[in-house]
């Protein structure tokens, strides 16, 4: 009888926590300088626009602190700055509290897993940067800078927070570093990088939940490359690769793009232009966005070996989808389109199949998505 009572009490407690949890999505739109706050109903995938705040011209990449208390957003116009917003723990409302310099125009922003450092990658300036985040969540004006090869496109630390990796699109390399927890300094692991085939274009990164594997999307190849992470040194070893572009899409190999030819206006050939890569919370599914075909590709992940298998490719209504993001429970996927007036929600099946179930108005050129689960009022 006692066991039954305890079980019922535990179940009631779990249901209460679930019922009181609110899921918010924050989406930046550089075309109008807005950060839009949405509420996601995890029961049915419904998406509701709550409010929009004026962040600044060309607001682009964002990063949530691990404690869920602050959202950082980078402005990609001079003077390059990061804006900090405190997040109300019940309503999710954003309140600006700080603004600090950035090293360059940043295409990617993240924090380390402890929330002590702000990491950034500059595509145009071929640079990575690290700056300390104070106990009051204030980013330091002292910035560590690390030159890279052409077009640095991402930087993240793995779950143990000892190592950092960066996609270097123009050199077809994935950069590998050890992170000094006390200073934030990055030091190369081995030669400092591993190479992928020419014109792969390493872009965004995703890690397995246990931190044993790293996955990298190739912007120009539409492939996902899997690497094992040496537990002691952090060195990467390629273990698998899967192509996410089926022949029916009729896409030619991609080309390097920059501010001068981002839309390849003088090239009428439809080309691969992969963008984001996201791992499901259970570590069994990877999803990749592809902009030219306005679609999302799904890959099965073998958690034990890190292996990959292409499942299928699914069209989405959002035109030129750049960022995608799983809900905390993995049941829903948010999709933004740089040329779409709506942000969509899709139900995600176990095999990666997508079914659109909700939408809400987006800002102009919506792209970056950060999702937060916080207790409701």
Automatic annotation (TrEMBL):
It is an enzyme of class 3 (hydrolase). Its EC number is 3.1.1.-. InterPro entries: Cycloisomerase_2 (IPR050282), Lactonase_7-beta_prop (IPR019405), N2O_reductase_N (IPR011045), WD40/YVTN_repeat-like_dom_sf (IPR015943). Transmembrane segments: none annotated. Residues 1-21 form the signal peptide. The keyword Secreted does not apply. The keyword Lipid metabolism does not apply. It comes from the Bacteria. Gene3D superfamilies: YVTN repeat-like/Quinoprotein amine dehydrogenase. Keywords: Carbohydrate metabolism, Glucose metabolism, Hydrolase, Signal. One of its GO terms (molecular function) is hydrolase activity. Belongs to the cycloisomerase 2 family. This is Lactonase family protein.
